[in-house]
Amino acid sequence: MKFLSDIRLLVLAIWLGAAVFFIGVAQAAFSVLPNAESAGAVVNRTLSILNYGGLGIAAFLILTSLVGSTNFNRFFLWAERFLLLAVGTACAIGQFVIGFWLASIRAQIGKPIEEVAVDDPLRIQFNMLHEYSVWVLFGGMVAALAAFFIISNRKVGSPKAGKADVYDFSKEFKA
Fold it and tell me: Would residue 106 count as lying in a domain?
């Protein structure tokens, strides 16, 4: 069971790391690429990979939370599942709702977004949806981090009789 818990932590940590790395990729794309349209295409593609990955990982982690869950505190188990559901929901909303609306607005505009006037209603709506996308991803990342701490603090199994807990350092430093 400890092995499954470690795999679950690893998978969640990989997604969290990818989400943090995505922030750097987005900033670098807009500062390095020659125009915002190219940078937006790179960011859109990497964000869709992150969102689909988040959906898959959330589903995997929710399903694996059902394995051997009788020994765990029910409150924290359901809190973990709720947080993982929030991660999956954030990824789904970011990809299928906000992403769809942003693509629709880009198609309506028909030219690069930086060529549209700042006070244009489509540009205002685009900027608002972009802000929603940022907050939805941030919410998913916070939920994933909270789920990570719940999973990592779970006691998996108990030490066998006669064996000391390898993580109990309280006796290590007593005089």
Answer: yes
